[in-house]
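TASK: fixed-backbone design
INPUT:
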């Protein structure tokens, strides 16, 4: 019998309110519901002109962000890059990053691997320049 799992990303819990990030950020994480062992996946949406309020990086986890709708920019270390629909950006584990939506907002998929039982992420508050 094949081993597979199907979930609807839109039906997963939005953890944005749980972490005080709503209504600016909606985040639905699929790693555990899918039973992933080596990768992670999330569907995230930033409201128009909203940004992830912190920077983050990982110890070992490489990430890909696929812009599905809207656009904006990413702050990668000290550089800003514009992002638009269907752009894919790969980020090495130790690279500090955060996203900011433009006037239309931004919806994206975030893929990462390898994952561990506990997060190898480091969050840095106050990382955006004013």
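OUTPUT:
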């Amino acid at each position: 019998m094949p081993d597979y799992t199907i979930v609807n990303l839109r039906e997963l819990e939005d953890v944005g309110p749980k972490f005080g990030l709503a209504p600016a950020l909606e985040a639905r994480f699929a790693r555990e519901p899918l039973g992933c062992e080596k990768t992670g996946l999330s569907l995230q949406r930033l409201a128009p002109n909203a940004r992830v309020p912190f920077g983050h990086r990982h110890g070992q986890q490489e990430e890909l962000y696929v812009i599905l709708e809207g656009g904006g920019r990413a702050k990668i270390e000290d550089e800003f890059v514009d992002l638009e629909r269907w752009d894919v950006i790969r980020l090495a584990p130790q690279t500090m990053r955060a996203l900011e939506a433009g006037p239309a907002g931004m919806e994206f998929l975030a893929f990462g691997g390898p994952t561990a039982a506990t997060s190898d992420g480091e969050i840095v508050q106050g990382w955006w320049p004013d």
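COMMENT: The longest strand covers residues 97-113.
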